[in-house]
């Protein structure tokens, strides 16, 4: 079964085939670096990290471009208001470039902790001003934009004479335009839904560049079009981002590509892929609601909604447990459950490493492996793939105890599947082997003392040893002939 991906552009799953195999060009909208990385950043980064990893696993040579927005993203995602980075610079009393570098570094630190691979190329908007100016000039030459007082706007109604505007989002642009007629004439735009390609800067504006239209700075939308096309050409294979970017950001990108390159742009990318949003206990995450949670707060447990801090793999596992197109509802209970689930699979993996092969198998591996990859091929369904690993976790104890048998070939295939899928594709990190062996020596000694206490019918001591192990995060599994142990959550 080939990899199929849900294409927002066509609103259906489609078999993925790159334009120039085995090469794949993928562009993902990265962060606007004016604040600490939050749960929304983490979900988007993990989603496209898994796609990047899986494409490479399938043998594709992927050029993955993820940008850094360090200028031009105005408050409210419109053409009005203060630049988000300039506002932060004013509040922190530092230069805008310091803001961008500070929060870019914090973003990288958080994503590294979550085991998110760095992209092939990570361009900044400020580093590609010439490419943006060149693209704007070409759009003007094609007649789809106009200049007013040193600012340049894309003429949406002129564009709509030749191309559909709203094709990606499915928005009824006629209704949107009709509802905004009363705003016409109140600003310098011809029409309210026109959007800025270049904005004139006041003399006091701290981030501005020379252009054919005077000193100014780029609009938010043109940045991604210029950077993606500069590195990947047009059209390219995959454009990704969060669901909240479909309109107006990605819709504007498509319009800019067509206005610049004509029908050959073919909607800028063949596949438009979007991850869904993060909610906090059923509510949209926002600073105004007081439920805004950063990645660092998850790690430290410093947010009021968290009772403790959790390691990075707990958060990564939580993201993977939901399909990327479904809403991810975050809560302390959900995060705690994800951490327990992660530990369960890691315990099963370490138990699998201790399984001994036999002359023949009584356990089917190949069909199970096929179901795992069928789930991944079905629009990157990490939730369904993980469910198959959970189904096998109990069987691994039976394999370890000899109640089920595996041949050498099947055992190697089973280990290969666990390692490839959990670690190489899903990007989870195993419990450190050094830490595991340290635990093993201490726990095995305690387990032997407990077994001796039980044999001597000193059940009070046996229960005390069990409870103490539970307090430090060790779970015991009692069988008639032996006691097994697993790393668990601390009591």
How is the topology of this model organized?
Elements: E1 4-7, E2 12-15, E3 23-28, H1 39-57, E4 61-66, H2 84-92, H3 96-113, H4 129-142, E5 145-148, E6 151-154, H5 156-160, H6 173-179, E7 195-200, E8 216-218, H7 220-232, E9 236-242, H8 246-261, E10 269-275, E11 278-280, E12 283-284, H9 295-300, H10 312-320, E13 328-330, H11 332-352, H12 366-377, H13 382-401, H14 408-425, H15 433-455, H16 459-471, E14 474-478, E15 483-487
Parallel strand pairs: 3-4, 3-9, 9-10, 11-13
Antiparallel strand pairs: 1-2, 5-6, 6-7, 7-8, 11-12, 14-15
Helix pairs in contact: 1-10, 2-3, 4-7, 4-8, 7-8, 10-11, 11-13, 12-13, 15-16
Write up what this structure looks like:
With 491 residues, the chain is of the alpha/beta class. The protein has three domains: 4-275, HUPs (Rossmann fold), CATH 3.40.50.620; 279-425, Isoleucyl-tRNA Synthetase, Domain 1, CATH 1.10.730; 433-487, no CATH class. It is 45% helix and 14% strand. The chain contains 16 helices and 15 strands. The protein has helices at residues 39-57, 84-92, 96-113, 129-142, 156-160, 173-179, 220-232, 246-261, 295-300, 312-320, 332-352, 366-377, 382-401, 408-425, 433-455, 459-471, and strands spanning 4-7, 12-15, 23-28, 61-66, 145-148, 151-154, 195-200, 216-218, 236-242, 269-275, 278-280, 283-284, 328-330, 474-478, 483-487. The strands form five sheets. Strands 4-3-9-10 form a four-stranded parallel beta sheet, with helices on both faces. Strands 5-6-7-8 form a four-stranded antiparallel beta sheet. A three-stranded mixed beta sheet has the order 12-11-13. The chain starts with a strand and ends with a strand.
């Amino acid at each position: 079964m080939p990899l199929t991906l849900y294409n927002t552009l066509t609103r259906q799953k489609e078999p993925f085939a790159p334009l120039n195999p085995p090469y794949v060009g993928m562009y993902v909208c990265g962060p606007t670096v004016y604040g600490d990385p939050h749960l929304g950043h983490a979900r988007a980064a993990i989603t496209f990290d898994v796609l990047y990893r899986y494409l490479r696993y399938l043998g594709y040579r992927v050029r993955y471009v993820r940008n850094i927005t360090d200028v031009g993203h105005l408050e409210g995602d419109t053409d009005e208001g203060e630049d988000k980075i300039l506002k932060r610079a004013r509040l922190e009393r530092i230069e805008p470039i310091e803001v961008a570098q500070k929060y870019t570094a914090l973003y990288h630190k958080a994503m590294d902790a979550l085991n998110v691979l760095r992209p092939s190329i990570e361009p900044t908007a400020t580093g590609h001003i010439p490419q943006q100016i060149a693209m704007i000039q070409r759009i003007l030459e094609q007649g789809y934009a106009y200049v007013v007082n040193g600012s340049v706007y894309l003429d949406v109604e002129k564009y709509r004479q030749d191309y559909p505007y709203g094709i990606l989002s499915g928005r009824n642009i006629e209704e949107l335009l009709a509802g905004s007629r009363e705003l016409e004439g109140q600003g310098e735009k011809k029409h309210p839904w026109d959007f800025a390609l270049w904005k004139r800067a006041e003399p006091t504006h701290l981030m501005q560049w020379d252009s054919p239209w005077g000193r100014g700075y780029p609009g938010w939308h043109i940045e991604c079009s210029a950077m993606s096309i500069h590195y990947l050409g047009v059209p390219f294979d995959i454009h990704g981002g969060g669901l909240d970017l479909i309109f107006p950001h990605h819709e504007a990108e498509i319009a800019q590509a067509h206005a610049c390159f004509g029908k050959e742009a073919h909607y800028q990318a063949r596949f438009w892929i979007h991850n869904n949003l993060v909610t906090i206990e059923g509510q949209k995450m926002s600073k105004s609601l007081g439920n805004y949670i950063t990645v660092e707060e998850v790690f430290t447990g410093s947010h009021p909604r968290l009772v403790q801090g959790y390691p990075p793999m707990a958060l990564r596992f939580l993201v993977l447990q939901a399909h990327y197109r479904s809403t991810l509802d975050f809560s302390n209970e959900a995060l705690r459950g994800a951490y327990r689930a992660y530990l369960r699979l890691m315990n099963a993996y370490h138990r699998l490493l201790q399984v001994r092969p036999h002359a023949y198998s009584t356990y089917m591996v190949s069909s199970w492996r096929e179901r795992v990859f069928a789930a991944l091929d079905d629009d990157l369904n990490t939730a369904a793939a993980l469910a198959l690993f959970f189904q096998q976790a109990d069987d691994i104890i039976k394999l370890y105890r000899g109640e089920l048998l595996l041949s050498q070939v099947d055992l190697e295939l089973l280990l290969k599947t666990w390692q490839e899928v959990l670690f190489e594709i899903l990007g989870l990190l195993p419990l450190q082997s050094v830490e595991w062996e340290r635990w093993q020596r201490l726990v095995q000694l305690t387990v032997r003392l407990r077994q001796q206490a039980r044999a001597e019918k000193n059940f009070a001591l046996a229960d005390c040893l069990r409870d103490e192990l539970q307090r430090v995060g060790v779970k015991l599994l009692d069988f008639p002939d032996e006691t097994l142990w697993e790393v668990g959550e601390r009591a």
